[in-house]
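Long-time lurker, finally posting.

We've been working with NAD(P)/FAD-dependent oxidoreductase (Actinomadura graeca) and I want a structural starting point before designing mutants. I don't trust myself to interpret raw outputs, so I'm hoping someone here can both generate the structure tokens and explain anything notable. Sequence follows.
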Amino acid sequence: MAEDVDVVVIGLGPGGEDAAGRLAEAGLSVAAVESRLVGGECPYYACVPTKMMVRAAGLLAEGGRVPGMAGSATVGPDWAPVAKRIRVEATDDWDDTAAADRLTAKGVTLVRGRGRITAPREVTVDGRVLRARRGVLLNTGTSPAAPPIDGLDGLPYWTNREAVEATEAPGSLLVLGGGVVGVEMAQVFSRFGTRVTVVEAGDRLLANEEPESGDLLRRVFEREGIGVRTGVKVTGTSQEGGELALHLGDERLTADRLLVATGRRPNLKGLGLDVVGLDEGARQIPVDGGMRAADGVWAIGDITGKGAFTHVSMYQASVAVRDILGEEGPPASYRAVPRVTFTDPEIGSVGLTEAQARDQNLPVRTGTAQIPESARGWIHKVGNDGFIKLVANPEWGTLVGATAAGPSGGEVLGALAVAVHTEATTAALREMIYAYPTFHRAIEAALADLDA
Ligand SMILES: Cc1cc2nc3c(=O)[nH]c(=O)nc-3n(C[C@H](O)[C@H](O)[C@H](O)COP(=O)(O)OP(=O)(O)OC[C@H]3O[C@@H](n4cnc5c(N)ncnc54)[C@H](O)[C@@H]3O)c2cc1C
Ligand SMILES: NC(=O)c1ccc[n+]([C@@H]2O[C@H](COP(=O)([O-])OP(=O)(O)OC[C@H]3O[C@@H](n4cnc5c(N)ncnc54)[C@H](O)[C@@H]3O)[C@@H](O)[C@H]2O)c1
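Top reply, 14 upvotes:
Generated this for you. Predicted structure of NAD(P)/FAD-dependent oxidoreductase:
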């Protein structure tokens, strides 16, 4: 017999988990369906454990910067405490009991298994039928995607999941894909003594960011001994003995491990989307400003294609909850989506890149300041690589995008995210007093360059 509830949430990524809890706390009856781990990719295989890896790698790098600046230091990498911290503190050995208990304590009915829409406002999980009076909220996220390269399917390659579960740093690592996952992982493992080469098909690292960001990262990587191969085509793969190989025509790159970080595919197959007029083969589910995808269907998170970040998933959750509860509020806006690549230097950015602004036919003016030339950057000295780049629309007199690359670039970004979000005028930003000597004071120099 079917069970009647108000809302069924399929997939409990960060947004789905949050929305299910909030809807239950608002008094609705909520069934939440999860096939793997409550909380999704972020706490178990993505943001949280990888940032623990980044933190540990950063400590090693800072220790290595002591000579010539503050005396002597000997640092030796050991992956064991990183692996232990991920297993014990971050993921509870990839056990979601605590998260599941938190959710059910809010009044949510947790249903373990794979959910499928079987009729409008109806979801079936292993034969259990759930009817949703108000509707269904989709938050099924993404899975790692591998390109169709000869032989790759048969190789024991890592994705982000195996990399996070690693109990030791490999001797050598090939990273296929120089996007966010690839560059974060490459630098982490390199700092733990792994010989790393990044292999990227596009002509630069971090293709979605300003070209200056990819160029900066390449310079830093090469200085740190990380191999960077861009604009290359992998024609095949092979395994000989313990070694994995990528073929670039006649050339062979070999390593103990291969990390495939070539992007993600949305978890839409088998969801029964055709029942509600949506396309399971699509790259994303189109949503309106209230996160509505179809009658009685809301979608949030990576599957909406509005930015594959935990903060976007959480933001959309709050918009969807409001819409489901029939509360007033502004439609979702993506003008000022912030993003941070947690390399050293950190690459923080918000809004449009220069190229994206030009593609939208906006009038564009840019201003740049180099961190090493700022007072704080000069004082900081070793490890001071970075820049601020502003993308302004001179007609509106506002910033439409910005990048803060450098030490704590993701934190400096906060000021720029406020500026883009609130549409602060560049005139007002110029009148601001910027504390001396901070990294964010370089924003003032970039504003001056905007005028030049
Ligand atoms: C290595 C890595 C590092 C990252 N670091 C960051 C970072 O630092 N900051 C940041 O903001 N973002 C980061 N991200 C992105 C971030 O992980 C995602 O944007 C975030 O998890 C939000 O995803 P989501 O809400 O769409 O759902 P997901 O987290 O993908 O979760 C979806 C859930 O739905 C479940 N599911 C799927 N289909 C079904 C079904 N039919 N029935 C039941 N359950 C189903 C899945 O099992 C999963 O638990 C990182 C990603 C990766 C890969
Ligand atoms: N710090 C963060 O917030 C953070 C960290 C990691 C991931 N994420 C999210 O996860 C998403 C996925 O990250 P990702 O790095 O897997 O994907 P991505 O799309 O950012 O990068 C994938 C890269 O792989 C390259 N590639 C694709 N096919 C290739 C091939 N055959 N050979 C060589 N290179 C190839 C692409 O050109 C691209 O540069 C990101 O877009 C981001 O939204 C966020």
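Before you design anything, note these points.
The CA atoms of residues 430 and 444 lie 7 Å apart.
Residues 3-39+96-143+265-324 form a domain with the FAD/NAD(P)-binding domain fold (CATH 3.50.50.60).
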